[in-house]
Design a protein that fits this description.
Elements: E1 2-4, E2 7-12, E3 22-30, E4 36-40, E5 47-51, E6 57-59, E7 65-67, E8 71-74, E9 81-85, E10 90-96, H1 100-105, H2 124-133, H3 138-149, H4 158-166, H5 173-181, H6 185-196, H7 200-219, H8 228-235, H9 240-251, H10 255-261, E11 265-266
Parallel strand pairs: 4-11
Antiparallel strand pairs: 1-2, 2-3, 3-10, 4-9, 5-8, 5-10, 6-7, 6-9
Helix pairs in contact: 5-6, 7-8
Length: 282
């Protein structure tokens, strides 16, 4: 839980019934008199955000500012995003795991941002938002949202089930499943992209970068010094230039700039399935 003056942000556990679908929920509110800005490290997850206060804004790598309305979906988040919570902001974030977004909406490939009603035949999420605004208790808000979404959830595709089960155990899930199911690697890769929103190569590169970020956090605990050659070797980079390239690709920052700004950057961790859990703030 984060509490900076009158800014509060905390994670909320997911009921057992939905643990395969959501990693956790995140709630934040800014009751201070100032805007608060953070950088969100890419998580390769899709998020749905409900806004119950003043408009929250997001700025992508191209410096495009997106001011959200009552509800927004974004992802899979593959590059850093800055977001600003102005005074009076209050938002609830729902974080989808693995293929969960596909199982709800029948797609995993989205634009940078979208209103969920754009994926439906009616304005049901705008209606849901109105219903949530009338509920004072955060716990009852989440219960109501889960009750609403339960009928939309579809079963998991058998191929996706195998991809998720294999995770990142040193064996290419695409190659393994291709051999097992007598399918072409291309068809398995297309299924992964369709259901999860990214390729195994993209996830492999991201997992390596995330490992580097976490090692840097450990090495710089109480100091601003880091042995970058140690990071390169420990995380499987060819050389320091490849590491620098990944920092600029994912964060739009050099490694040294990241060290200076890391207190305001929210970093993910890797869970037991070798998919990412949600960032510290989200």
């Amino acid at each position: 839980m984060k509490n900076q003056g009158t800014y509060n942000g905390y994670r909320i556990a997911v009921p057992v019934e939905f643990e395969e679908v959501f990693s956790h929920f995140y709630f934040s509110e800014n009751k201070s008199g100032n805007s608060i800005t953070h950088t969100l490290v890419p998580s390769f997850q899709t998020m749905m955000i409900f806004n119950f206060g003043t408009a929250v804004s997001f700025i992508n790598k191209q410096n495009d500012e997106i001011e959200m309305g009552n509800c927004m979906i974004a992802g899979p988040l593959k590059q850093a995003v800055r977001y600003t919570l102005p005074s009076g902001a209050e938002m609830l974030v729902i974080n989808f795991k693995n293929d969960a977004f596909f199982r709800f909406f029948g797609t995993a490939l989205l634009e940078d941002h979208l209103h969920p009603d754009d994926l439906m035949t009616d304005n049901c999420f705008s209606t849901l938002w109105k219903e949530l605004t009338k509920i004072d208790s955060l716990e009852r808000k989440i219960t109501h949202m889960l009750t609403f979404c339960r009928p939309f959830l579809q079963g998991r595709h058998p191929i996706t089930e195998q991809i998720i089960a294999l995770g990142n155990n040193g064996i290419s899930p695409v190659k393994e499943i291709s051999n097992r199911e007598q399918l072409s690697e291309r068809s398995v890769q297309m299924k992964l992209k369709e259901h999860l929103g990214y390729s195994s190569r993209e996830m492999g590169r991201y997992t390596r970068f995330l490992k580097a970020i976490q090692l840097v956090q450990h090495l710089t605990s109480g100091t601003d010094q880091v042995n970058w050659f140690e990071v390169v070797e420990a995380c499987g980079y060819y050389d320091q230039s490849q590491l620098i390239h990944d920092f600029k690709h994912y964060l739009n920052l050099s490694p040294s700039k990241y060290i200076k700004l890391r207190q305001g950057i929210c970093v993910s961790s890797i869970n037991s399935e070798n998919h990412t859990s949600l960032p510290a703030l989200f």
